């Protein structure tokens, strides 16, 4: 039983507009979640390495709690679990202003923040201890040492694993369709509903994800080369095609 | 990059070549494996759902077991087994075309656009879309939903009709019933729209059924059929024969009473029109 492909369903009718809307929503939710995840990741990653136990403990609890519960559960938690506990006017406002989008964004951001913090921590810990001691000996405070010396180097070191994490985040944004966020995967299913052409719609979705991810990887590759500190981490080979 | 691309193309070619190798008819497949694999629902009482005893049961499943299966066994001259897989609106057509299941028996509406992809049996249930709302809600039907937040099931015909008829309604589409109902319970949406019979099932299973009501006239026509792969008329004939015999012999009504009768899971009397319509689909021997 062979299958007759009909690719025209991807641009006939409203399909094209839907796909475009889906791409925009996916990019919007992923970009915002990525910013949140980076902020949380840098904070938690740095906190896990500071010489002060309560801060380390708090960051460890955050990381272990949020990365060890499935993302799908977090989606439901932020969408079904959190809003009913807010005051009624806030709830109504949220429900009228895309509660599902914000819940999905926070779920993605907090979950990936926990994962990114581990990447950032390993970056920080790969910097020789002497460098940290040298910064303190220069008269920098702990905060200054992190802000001016440790993090700038660590963040450069971890661009490759951070890229992977960003790509994961983008692809994981499709989980948000379970709480009715109309992102890319949702829209490909929409096309399937209208045309009953699932294979074409899924293939289009797959290729779009591939394209988006490849574009991000390319940008990050450029960034890596651009930011490399000469003589320190710009080793031969490795970066980008 | 160019090498990577050509690798991808090669992979795609291999995959697309692999499919036609499986060209056997559904009856041949069932004869070879001794198994009829159906795709059905887990959360759509009473058509297909997990009951309190953790058993996967339902009206559509009973129809397959007691109407379709005997007809196939008679044709093949040997006993077969029915195996169930979960299918949802977005997955059911791919499940069929990839040969993962042979028959969709759940809550699938027979439509003309779906007919281009799959074939349908005769209609075994007739319903139409309505709204489930909290008791006392101002929503009384499709004319009251402009500007309201309406939950619908992703991939259903209802969402499509709402989008076309009331574009100002804010649609929230969920992949399954429990999530959509949860959104309604919490007030994230003002109403949940689905086929009337499914809403009745959901209401019957809700913790406090008295809090909810089903409102509005049918704003769509939803004839349920069993779907199967395109262009396999021998198999479709057998499925139809099984269903016709069940309607003719009264077996269908027994099953209907079991699920929709006064003591059934979802009391829902069969309308006189629906009864006549079912009878008239039974063609002579």
Record keyword descriptors for this entry.
heterodimer, A: 241 residues, mainly alpha, B: 285 residues, alpha/beta, 5-stranded mixed beta sheet, 42% helix, 22% strand
Summarize the structure.
The complex is a heterodimer of chains A (241) and B (285). Chain A has 241 residues and is an all-alpha fold.
Question: Could you characterize the architecture of this molecule?
Answer:
The complex is a heterodimer of chains A (241) and B (285). By secondary structure, chain A is mainly α. Chain A is built from ten helices and no strands. Chain A is globular. Chain A starts with 14 loop residues before the first helix and ends in a 14-residue tail after the last helix. Chain B is an alpha/beta fold and 285 residues long. Chain B has helices at residues 2-18, 26-33, 59-76, 89-97, 112-115, 157-165, 177-185, 196-205, 233-249, 251-260, 272-280; strands at 35-40, 43-44, 48-50, 56-57, 81-86, 103-104, 118-127, 129-134, 149-153, 170-174, 191-195, 212-215, 222-229. In chain B, strand 3 and strand 4 (56-57) form a beta hairpin. The longest helix of chain B is centred in the first third of the chain and has 18 residues, at 59-76. Chain A binds chain B through residues 1-3, 76, 79-80, 83-84, 91, 95-96, 99-100, 177-180, 182, 186, 189-190, 192-199, 202, 241, and chain B through 1, 19-20, 22-23, 89-90, 93-94, 97, 99, 113-114, 116-118, 149, 151, 154-156, 159-160, 172-175, 179, 182-183, 186-189, 229-232.
């Amino acid at each position: 039983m062979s299958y007759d492909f009909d690719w025209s369903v991807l641009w006939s009718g409203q399909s094209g507009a839907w796909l475009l809307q889906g791409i925009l929503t996916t990019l919007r939710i992923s970009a915002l979640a990525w910013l949140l995840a980076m902020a949380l990741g840098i904070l938690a990653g740095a906190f896990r390495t500071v010489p002060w136990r309560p801060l380390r403990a708090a960051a460890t609890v955050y990381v272990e709690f949020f990365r060890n519960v499935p993302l799908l559960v977090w989606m439901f938690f932020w969408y079904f679990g959190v809003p009913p506990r807010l005051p009624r006017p806030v709830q109504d406002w949220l429900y009228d202003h895309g509660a599902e989008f914000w819940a999905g964004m926070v779920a993605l951001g907090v979950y990936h923040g926990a994962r990114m913090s581990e990447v950032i921590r390993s970056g920080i810990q790969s910097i020789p201890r002497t460098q940290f001691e040298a910064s303190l000996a220069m008269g920098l405070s702990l905060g200054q040492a992190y802000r001016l010396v440790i993090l700038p180097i660590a963040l450069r070191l971890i661009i490759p694993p951070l890229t992977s994490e960003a790509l994961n985040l983008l692809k994981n944004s499709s989980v948000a369709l379970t709480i009715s966020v109309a992102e890319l995967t949702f829209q490909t299913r929409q096309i399937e509903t209208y045309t009953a052409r699932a294979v074409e719609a899924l293939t289009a979705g797959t290729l779009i994800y591939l394209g988006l991810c490849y574009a991000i990887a390319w940008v990050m590759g450029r960034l890596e080369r651009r930011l490399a500190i000469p003589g320190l981490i710009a080793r031969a080979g490795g970066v980008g095609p | 990059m160019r090498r990577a691309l050509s690798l991808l193309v090669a992979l795609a070619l291999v995959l697309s070549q692999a499919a036609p190798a499986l060209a056997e008819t559904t009856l041949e497949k069932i004869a070879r494996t001794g198994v009829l694999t159906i795709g059905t629902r887990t959360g759509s009482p009473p058509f297909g759902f997990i009951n309190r005893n953790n058993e996967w049961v339902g009206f559509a499943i009973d129809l397959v077991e007691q109407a379709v299966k005997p007809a196939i066994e008679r044709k093949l001259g040997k006993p077969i087994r029915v195996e169930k897989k979960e299918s949802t609106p977005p997955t059911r057509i791919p499940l069929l075309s990839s040969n993962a299941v042979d028959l969709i028996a759940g809550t699938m509406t027979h439509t003309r656009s779906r007919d281009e992809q799959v074939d349908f049996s005769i209609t075994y249930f007739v319903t139409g879309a309505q709204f489930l709302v909290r008791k006392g809600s101002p929503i009384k039907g499709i004319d009251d939903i402009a500007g309201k937040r309406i939950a619908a099931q992703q991939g259903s015909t209802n969402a499509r009709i709402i989008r076309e008829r009331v574009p100002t309604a804010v649609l929230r589409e969920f992949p399954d019933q429990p999530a959509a109902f949860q959104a309604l319970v919490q007030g994230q949406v003002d109403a949940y729209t689905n086929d009337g019979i499914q809403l009745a099932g959901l209401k019957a299973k809700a913790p406090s059924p008295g809090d909810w009501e089903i409102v509005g006239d049918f704003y769509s026509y939803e004839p349920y059929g069993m779907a199967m792969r395109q262009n396999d008329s021998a198999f479709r004939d057998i499925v139809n024969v099984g269903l016709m015999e069940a309607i003719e012999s009264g077996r269908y009504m027994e099953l209907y009473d079991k699920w929709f009768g006064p003591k059934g899971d979802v009391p829902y009397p069969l309308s006189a029109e629906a009864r006549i319509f079912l009878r008239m689909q039974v063609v002579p021997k």
